Amino acid sequence: MSITDGQAHIWAADTPQRPWPTTPIAPHRDVALGADELLGRMDEVGVARCVLVPPTWEGPRNDVVLAAIREHPMRFAALLRVDPTDPRVVRDLPALCREPNVVGIRLSMTQGDWRASLRAADASGFFAVAAAAGVRLSIYMPGGYRELAGLAARYPELRITVDHLALDRVGPPLDQAVEPVLTLAAHPNVAVKASALPCFVDEAFPFPSISRGVLRLVREFGSDRVFWGSDLSRLPCTYADLISCFVDHMPELDHRQLADLMGGAISRWLDWPSPPDQDDVARQPDALAPISRPSSHGSAHHD
Q1: Cβ atoms within 10 Å, residue 206
Q2: Burial of 73 (0-12, 13-18, 19+ CB in 10 A)
Q3: In sequence order, what DSSP letters do the residues of 116-152 get, joined into one string?
Q4: Domain locations in the chain?
Q5: Could you give the 3-state DSSP secondary structure of residue 276?
Q6: What pLDDT score was predicted for residue 41?
Q7: Integer Cα distance of 263 and 241 in angstroms
Q8: Within 10 A of 112 (CB to CB), how many other CB atoms are there?
Q9: Structure confidence by residue, pLDDT tens digits, 231-280
Q10: Which class would CATH give 4-279?
Protein backbone atom coordinates (compact mmCIF):
# COMPACT_ATOMS: atom_id res chain seq x y z
CA MET A 1 0.00 0.00 0.00
CA SER A 2 1.42 3.36 -1.06
CA ILE A 3 0.69 6.19 1.40
CA THR A 4 -0.12 9.76 0.37
CA ASP A 5 -0.27 12.39 3.11
CA GLY A 6 -3.24 14.64 2.41
CA GLN A 7 -1.74 17.75 4.04
CA ALA A 8 1.54 19.20 5.25
CA HIS A 9 2.81 22.76 5.36
CA ILE A 10 6.22 23.89 4.16
CA TRP A 11 7.43 27.47 4.36
CA ALA A 12 10.45 29.75 4.34
CA ALA A 13 11.76 32.04 7.06
CA ASP A 14 10.47 35.55 7.69
CA THR A 15 13.28 37.80 6.39
CA PRO A 16 13.60 41.40 5.17
CA GLN A 17 14.00 40.02 1.66
CA ARG A 18 10.88 37.85 2.01
CA PRO A 19 8.75 39.26 4.83
CA TRP A 20 5.60 37.65 6.09
CA PRO A 21 2.43 39.76 6.25
CA THR A 22 1.14 40.98 9.59
CA THR A 23 -1.14 38.26 10.92
CA PRO A 24 -2.38 37.08 14.33
CA ILE A 25 -1.56 33.48 13.39
CA ALA A 26 1.76 32.20 14.71
CA PRO A 27 3.77 29.55 12.86
CA HIS A 28 3.62 26.00 14.14
CA ARG A 29 7.30 26.10 15.06
CA ASP A 30 10.12 28.65 15.21
CA VAL A 31 12.26 27.09 12.47
CA ALA A 32 10.90 26.96 8.94
CA LEU A 33 10.01 23.54 7.55
CA GLY A 34 11.33 23.06 4.03
CA ALA A 35 10.79 20.48 1.31
CA ASP A 36 14.01 18.59 2.00
CA GLU A 37 13.23 18.13 5.69
CA LEU A 38 9.71 17.03 4.88
CA LEU A 39 11.00 14.48 2.36
CA GLY A 40 13.34 13.10 5.02
CA ARG A 41 10.49 12.77 7.51
CA MET A 42 8.33 11.07 4.88
CA ASP A 43 11.08 8.61 3.98
CA GLU A 44 11.57 7.68 7.64
CA VAL A 45 7.97 6.48 7.95
CA GLY A 46 7.28 5.24 4.43
CA VAL A 47 5.09 8.06 3.09
CA ALA A 48 5.38 8.10 -0.70
CA ARG A 49 3.72 11.42 -1.55
CA CYS A 50 2.28 14.52 0.07
CA VAL A 51 -0.13 17.33 -0.77
CA LEU A 52 1.53 20.60 0.19
CA VAL A 53 -0.39 23.56 1.60
CA PRO A 54 1.18 27.01 2.09
CA PRO A 55 0.61 28.07 5.71
CA THR A 56 -1.67 30.92 6.68
CA TRP A 57 1.09 32.97 8.30
CA GLU A 58 2.82 33.46 4.92
CA GLY A 59 -0.28 35.00 3.38
CA PRO A 60 -1.54 34.27 -0.14
CA ARG A 61 1.85 33.31 -1.56
CA ASN A 62 2.84 30.05 -3.18
CA ASP A 63 6.51 30.32 -4.18
CA VAL A 64 7.77 27.67 -1.74
CA VAL A 65 5.25 24.97 -2.66
CA LEU A 66 5.54 25.72 -6.38
CA ALA A 67 9.31 25.30 -6.21
CA ALA A 68 8.83 21.99 -4.35
CA ILE A 69 6.40 20.45 -6.83
CA ARG A 70 8.62 21.46 -9.75
CA GLU A 71 11.70 19.92 -8.14
CA HIS A 72 9.96 16.79 -6.80
CA PRO A 73 6.98 16.10 -9.10
CA MET A 74 6.78 12.43 -8.09
CA ARG A 75 6.56 13.27 -4.39
CA PHE A 76 4.59 16.51 -4.08
CA ALA A 77 1.41 18.15 -5.32
CA ALA A 78 0.12 21.52 -4.08
CA LEU A 79 -3.04 23.28 -3.04
CA LEU A 80 -2.40 26.97 -3.62
CA ARG A 81 -3.50 29.82 -1.39
CA VAL A 82 -5.18 32.83 -3.04
CA ASP A 83 -7.40 35.80 -2.22
CA PRO A 84 -10.80 34.65 -3.54
CA THR A 85 -12.15 38.21 -3.58
CA ASP A 86 -9.44 39.52 -5.93
CA PRO A 87 -10.87 39.97 -9.47
CA ARG A 88 -7.49 39.07 -10.99
CA VAL A 89 -7.45 35.80 -9.06
CA VAL A 90 -10.96 34.98 -10.25
CA ARG A 91 -9.98 35.77 -13.84
CA ASP A 92 -6.78 33.74 -13.77
CA LEU A 93 -7.98 30.84 -11.59
CA PRO A 94 -8.36 28.23 -14.38
CA ALA A 95 -4.89 28.98 -15.75
CA LEU A 96 -3.34 28.99 -12.27
CA CYS A 97 -4.59 25.46 -11.62
CA ARG A 98 -3.41 24.05 -14.95
CA GLU A 99 0.22 23.87 -13.83
CA PRO A 100 1.32 20.25 -13.37
CA ASN A 101 0.76 19.00 -9.80
CA VAL A 102 -1.28 22.03 -8.80
CA VAL A 103 -4.35 20.14 -7.64
CA GLY A 104 -6.57 22.90 -6.29
CA ILE A 105 -6.96 25.85 -3.94
CA ARG A 106 -6.92 25.97 -0.14
CA LEU A 107 -9.13 28.53 1.62
CA SER A 108 -8.87 29.26 5.35
CA MET A 109 -11.97 30.92 6.79
CA THR A 110 -10.87 31.17 10.42
CA GLN A 111 -10.30 34.82 11.26
CA GLY A 112 -12.64 37.75 11.91
CA ASP A 113 -16.06 37.71 10.27
CA TRP A 114 -15.46 34.60 8.16
CA ARG A 115 -19.10 34.46 7.08
CA ALA A 116 -18.68 37.90 5.51
CA SER A 117 -15.49 36.64 3.85
CA LEU A 118 -17.41 33.69 2.46
CA ARG A 119 -20.13 35.95 1.08
CA ALA A 120 -17.51 38.22 -0.49
CA ALA A 121 -15.81 35.27 -2.17
CA ASP A 122 -19.16 34.10 -3.52
CA ALA A 123 -20.03 37.58 -4.78
CA SER A 124 -16.70 37.84 -6.60
CA GLY A 125 -17.62 34.86 -8.76
CA PHE A 126 -14.79 32.77 -7.33
CA PHE A 127 -16.87 29.68 -6.55
CA ALA A 128 -18.74 29.83 -9.86
CA VAL A 129 -15.49 30.02 -11.82
CA ALA A 130 -13.92 27.22 -9.76
CA ALA A 131 -16.94 24.99 -10.37
CA ALA A 132 -16.99 25.69 -14.11
CA ALA A 133 -13.24 25.08 -14.45
CA GLY A 134 -13.18 21.91 -12.35
CA VAL A 135 -10.94 23.47 -9.69
CA ARG A 136 -10.92 21.48 -6.44
CA LEU A 137 -11.22 23.40 -3.18
CA SER A 138 -10.01 22.46 0.29
CA ILE A 139 -11.68 24.65 2.90
CA TYR A 140 -10.89 25.01 6.58
CA MET A 141 -13.97 26.62 8.11
CA PRO A 142 -14.21 25.57 11.77
CA GLY A 143 -17.81 25.02 12.76
CA GLY A 144 -19.11 26.14 9.37
CA TYR A 145 -21.11 23.01 8.60
CA ARG A 146 -24.28 24.83 7.54
CA GLU A 147 -22.30 27.21 5.33
CA LEU A 148 -20.39 24.35 3.73
CA ALA A 149 -23.65 22.54 3.03
CA GLY A 150 -25.06 25.67 1.43
CA LEU A 151 -21.98 26.09 -0.75
CA ALA A 152 -22.11 22.46 -1.86
CA ALA A 153 -25.80 22.77 -2.72
CA ARG A 154 -25.34 25.99 -4.74
CA TYR A 155 -22.41 24.59 -6.70
CA PRO A 156 -23.01 20.84 -7.13
CA GLU A 157 -20.18 20.56 -9.68
CA LEU A 158 -17.65 22.00 -7.22
CA ARG A 159 -15.55 19.42 -5.38
CA ILE A 160 -15.05 20.54 -1.78
CA THR A 161 -12.80 18.92 0.80
CA VAL A 162 -13.56 19.83 4.42
CA ASP A 163 -10.18 20.18 6.10
CA HIS A 164 -9.68 18.90 9.67
CA LEU A 165 -13.38 17.89 9.66
CA ALA A 166 -14.08 21.62 10.36
CA LEU A 167 -12.99 21.09 13.98
CA ASP A 168 -11.32 23.95 15.84
CA ARG A 169 -10.41 22.82 19.36
CA VAL A 170 -10.18 19.89 21.72
CA GLY A 171 -13.71 18.87 22.60
CA PRO A 172 -15.65 15.65 23.06
CA PRO A 173 -14.17 12.31 21.94
CA LEU A 174 -13.74 12.34 18.20
CA ASP A 175 -16.44 9.76 17.52
CA GLN A 176 -18.87 12.31 19.03
CA ALA A 177 -17.19 15.39 17.57
CA VAL A 178 -17.73 14.12 14.00
CA GLU A 179 -21.52 14.22 14.41
CA PRO A 180 -21.99 17.63 12.69
CA VAL A 181 -19.79 16.80 9.71
CA LEU A 182 -21.70 13.61 8.99
CA THR A 183 -24.59 15.73 7.71
CA LEU A 184 -22.40 16.76 4.77
CA ALA A 185 -22.23 13.19 3.48
CA ALA A 186 -25.53 13.78 1.68
CA HIS A 187 -23.67 16.04 -0.77
CA PRO A 188 -21.74 13.85 -3.24
CA ASN A 189 -19.41 16.76 -4.08
CA VAL A 190 -18.13 16.96 -0.48
CA ALA A 191 -15.25 14.93 0.96
CA VAL A 192 -13.61 15.18 4.38
CA LYS A 193 -9.97 15.29 5.37
CA ALA A 194 -9.26 13.41 8.57
CA SER A 195 -6.19 15.55 9.19
CA ALA A 196 -4.40 16.82 12.32
CA LEU A 197 -6.80 14.73 14.40
CA PRO A 198 -4.51 14.21 17.43
CA CYS A 199 -4.70 18.00 17.86
CA PHE A 200 -8.41 17.71 18.61
CA VAL A 201 -8.48 14.92 21.20
CA ASP A 202 -7.44 14.69 24.83
CA GLU A 203 -6.05 11.16 24.77
CA ALA A 204 -2.82 9.30 24.13
CA PHE A 205 -1.74 6.99 21.33
CA PRO A 206 -3.36 4.92 19.86
CA PHE A 207 -6.14 7.55 20.07
CA PRO A 208 -9.12 5.19 20.34
CA SER A 209 -11.76 7.86 19.70
CA ILE A 210 -9.99 8.79 16.45
CA SER A 211 -10.32 5.20 15.26
CA ARG A 212 -14.00 5.14 16.19
CA GLY A 213 -14.61 8.53 14.59
CA VAL A 214 -12.91 7.66 11.31
CA LEU A 215 -14.96 4.47 11.07
CA ARG A 216 -18.12 6.57 11.41
CA LEU A 217 -16.89 8.82 8.62
CA VAL A 218 -16.20 5.89 6.32
CA ARG A 219 -19.64 4.43 7.01
CA GLU A 220 -21.37 7.71 6.06
CA PHE A 221 -19.17 9.08 3.27
CA GLY A 222 -17.71 5.85 1.90
CA SER A 223 -13.97 5.28 1.79
CA ASP A 224 -13.68 7.25 -1.46
CA ARG A 225 -14.52 10.54 0.33
CA VAL A 226 -12.43 10.28 3.52
CA PHE A 227 -8.76 11.29 3.31
CA TRP A 228 -5.96 10.84 5.83
CA GLY A 229 -3.62 13.79 6.38
CA SER A 230 -1.02 14.62 8.98
CA ASP A 231 -0.62 18.41 9.15
CA LEU A 232 2.81 17.33 10.31
CA SER A 233 4.20 20.62 11.64
CA ARG A 234 1.52 20.88 14.34
CA LEU A 235 1.29 17.23 15.42
CA PRO A 236 1.46 16.53 19.18
CA CYS A 237 2.60 12.97 18.43
CA THR A 238 5.12 11.31 16.14
CA TYR A 239 4.50 10.88 12.43
CA ALA A 240 4.88 7.11 12.88
CA ASP A 241 2.28 6.96 15.66
CA LEU A 242 -0.26 8.88 13.59
CA ILE A 243 0.18 6.49 10.68
CA SER A 244 -0.08 3.52 13.03
CA CYS A 245 -3.34 4.90 14.45
CA PHE A 246 -4.89 4.57 11.00
CA VAL A 247 -3.07 1.55 9.59
CA ASP A 248 -2.85 -0.70 12.66
CA HIS A 249 -5.83 0.27 14.80
CA MET A 250 -8.81 0.14 12.43
CA PRO A 251 -9.14 -3.60 11.73
CA GLU A 252 -12.75 -3.07 10.63
CA LEU A 253 -11.47 -1.58 7.35
CA ASP A 254 -10.71 -3.98 4.51
CA HIS A 255 -7.61 -3.57 2.36
CA ARG A 256 -9.38 -1.50 -0.29
CA GLN A 257 -10.90 0.88 2.23
CA LEU A 258 -7.58 1.34 3.99
CA ALA A 259 -5.80 2.00 0.69
CA ASP A 260 -8.46 4.61 -0.11
CA LEU A 261 -8.10 6.28 3.28
CA MET A 262 -4.30 6.39 3.17
CA GLY A 263 -4.00 8.01 -0.24
CA GLY A 264 -5.90 6.31 -3.02
CA ALA A 265 -9.09 8.31 -2.54
CA ILE A 266 -7.51 11.76 -2.33
CA SER A 267 -5.36 10.97 -5.37
CA ARG A 268 -8.48 10.25 -7.41
CA TRP A 269 -10.46 13.16 -5.95
CA LEU A 270 -7.70 15.65 -6.86
CA ASP A 271 -6.92 13.95 -10.19
CA TRP A 272 -3.32 13.39 -9.09
CA PRO A 273 -2.47 10.00 -10.63
CA SER A 274 -1.50 7.65 -7.86
CA PRO A 275 1.06 4.83 -7.73
CA PRO A 276 -0.22 1.67 -9.46
CA ASP A 277 -0.71 -0.33 -6.27
CA GLN A 278 -3.33 2.16 -5.03
CA ASP A 279 -5.65 2.00 -8.02
CA ASP A 280 -4.96 -1.27 -9.85
CA VAL A 281 -7.25 -3.21 -7.50
CA ALA A 282 -10.92 -3.32 -8.45
CA ARG A 283 -13.16 -1.23 -6.25
CA GLN A 284 -14.64 -3.19 -3.36
CA PRO A 285 -17.93 -2.56 -1.51
CA ASP A 286 -17.71 -0.05 1.30
CA ALA A 287 -19.26 -2.33 3.92
CA LEU A 288 -17.06 -2.40 6.98
CA ALA A 289 -15.75 -5.91 7.40
CA PRO A 290 -12.86 -7.18 9.52
CA ILE A 291 -9.88 -8.63 7.70
CA SER A 292 -6.69 -10.32 8.86
CA ARG A 293 -3.69 -7.98 8.84
CA PRO A 294 -0.19 -8.65 7.64
CA SER A 295 2.72 -6.87 9.33
CA SER A 296 2.30 -3.62 11.28
CA HIS A 297 3.70 -1.45 8.46
CA GLY A 298 6.65 -0.40 10.60
CA SER A 299 4.59 1.15 13.35
CA ALA A 300 7.11 0.15 15.99
CA HIS A 301 9.64 2.63 14.63
CA HIS A 302 9.20 6.09 16.08
CA ASP A 303 10.70 9.45 15.23
Answers
A1: 17
A2: exposed
A3: HHHHHHHHTTHHHHHHHHT--EEEE-TT-HHHHHHHH
A4: 4-279
A5: helix
A6: 98
A7: 17
A8: 9
A9: 999 999 999 999 999 999 999 999 999 999 999 999 999 999 876 654 44
A10: alpha beta
